[in-house]
Amino acid sequence: MRSDDDRQAHVDRAGRLGQRFALRADDRGAGHDAALAAIQSPVDGQLYYNTQNTIPVEYTTSDVCSTPSVAMALDGEAFSGTEIVINEMVYGEHVFCVTSTDACGNPTTVCVTFDVQPLPAACFEVRDLDMQFKAKGDDDDDDDGVDPSGKGIACG
């Protein structure tokens, strides 16, 4: 929608008075709002444990003029796929980015940061402990064929 400020009076070659719209930069695309992008997964600031094998990649893009092109990056490297395999990743912080570019070449980049860590060892309480110890060579239960008297191997 144009305002009155966008119109200019002019006289065409035939001498007719008319109005001409001034073409602003955003009408041509240079100042046009870039495509939009949003990342739903991985979740920004989320802690993922390495036992969760993969994280699904989910994002949305939109543009008023056309379907935008999309490029993804994981830790600064080009990425393609629908899942991030985290059980093979280095522990620590990682950055996933989606760049959406409209038909005029205007890019929009959104990024999320997530953390991958090993599953912590569970805490537990020992309520009942049954331990058996064996002496080197014989445990006196006669199931190993060793004679506890040291006189030789028991047969049979």
In short:
This protein is mainly beta.
Walkthrough of the structure:
The protein is mainly β and 156 residues long. The chain has a domain of 89 residues: Immunoglobulins (Immunoglobulin-like, Sandwich). 3% of the residues lie in helices and 38% in strands. A 5-stranded mixed sheet has the order 4-11-10-7-8, with no helix packed on it. The protein has a two-stranded antiparallel sheet with strand order 1-2. It has a two-stranded antiparallel ribbon with strand order 3-6. The N and C termini lie far apart (103 Å). The N terminus is likely disordered.
Question: What's the number of extended β-strand segments?
Answer: 11
Poorly predicted sequence stretches spanning 5 or more consecutive residues: 1-31
CATH topology of the domain at 29-117: Immunoglobulin-like
Average pLDDT reading: 74
Number of helices: 1
* Computed CA radius of gyration, to the nearest angstrom: 36 Å
Under CATH, the homologous superfamily of the domain at 29-117 reads Immunoglobulins
User: In terms of structural class, how would the helical and strand content be classed?
Assistant: mainly beta
Strand order within the widest sheet? Answer: 4-11-10-7-8
